[in-house]
Amino acid sequence: MHASLRHFNKMTIMDMLYYASPAYGQLVVDSVTAQMNSKYKRFLHHHPGTDPPLLDCHSSRLSNDVGWNGHVSIFAHSLGSVIAYDILSHDAGALSATGVQFPGLEFPVENFFAAGSPVPVMLLSRGQVELTGDADTPLLHVPSRPRCAHYFNFIHPSDPIAYRMEPLLCEGGTSTPASLSAIFDPKIVHGMSFSDLYSRFTSTTLATATQAPTCVDYYLKHQTRDGTSRMMDVAYAPASHKSYWISQDVVLAALLQLCRPVGEILQRYDVAQVPRPELRPRRRVSFTPHKSVLLATTALARDRITGTWHNRVVLLANKHVYSVASVKDLAVTKSWAVPLASNSTTVVPVDDVGFKVATSTDAKGTVLHAPSRDDRDAWVDAIRARIGHKTKAVVNCDGLITNQSVEYFGAVKTSFLTQGWSTKWVVLTKSHLTAYE
């Protein structure tokens, strides 16, 4: 336990002491600010403005405003929250009391999430906290506030580094911070829709924001331990300080806050009694076996956000280029294939729901059964319509190292049919009838 605490002190307290020195502090501020500005510019470069028009519910017409108009959020942990707080609370070119000059961010920040944050202690140690009020009701006050619309401070009760922020920033703040475990109680939120969960979370934050409009403290769940609770809190201090990264409540709270613009738009649709728009990922189109794929191969693809390169499977179609992570995500095992030639292929019904496909080289043929008579007739008609056509659908699979197939693309018709005692995925293309395992 002593070794763990020593390592914990080295990773937290010593880093804060380095940052407190002007030389290292200037280096850290310059580096962090430059990296955030660079990532923001990179994001704008790859997202130059492709937002679809939105319905203006107040005027019942479409808004033609285009361009990326989203919000930027910062999630910071431990010393990172101190660095982010300092950057957000200083204008570009401003000097701190220790002589650190702040370059300034090139974008506004909507949400600032701080986890395991020692910001209050750092502000007190720097003398940045003022005492206001009178002798009977003294109040602590921080004149320099972070430039952000929403400030969330996540605190684990056993984390010795994390402190409350509301008493310093918000006059008349709550005496007890909100509890994430109470808001996201599994017995209450299990099975909730997004809109209900969003309403539950925002009603709590808005109720708190009535008294504290610029910040909110949130407590994580505290595991009560009978008997030697103080000793156990000391032992679990390192784990508590890192617990934010694996806390489902923290992730859910941050995601709901990030989704606030979407929730507000949906609420406006409901108030205006206008049908909600269909939500779907941008820059994505449907990708089915009915797409005509000309080439399937492997390639290095660059992530548009991080700039890193990854091995991907790329499929070239007539109008789009599709990308998947692995060939295993789309390749299937071929069982058999029958070429559809007018002089050698026949298809006839054999019973109420079955039909037989035979060739000149296989007179016995293959018998398949559909779920119903109508399905059987549809398959027979579709196969007969393709027999005799000279059009071929060939997928060039150059570069795909696999013993499986992606030749089902360009499908005319697909469904699961029964062959004997097994079920096959049967695909009718322009030139073949193929079964896959």
From TrEMBL:
Pfam families: DDHD (PF02862). It comes from the Eukaryota. SUPFAM superfamilies: PH domain-like (SSF50729). GO terms for molecular function: metal ion binding; phospholipase activity. GO terms for cellular component: cytoplasm. Residues 355-388 form the PH domain. Residues 105-260 form the DDHD domain. PANTHER family: LD21067P, PA-PL1 PHOSPHOLIPASE FAMILY. This is DDHD domain-containing protein. It comes from Aphanomyces invadans.
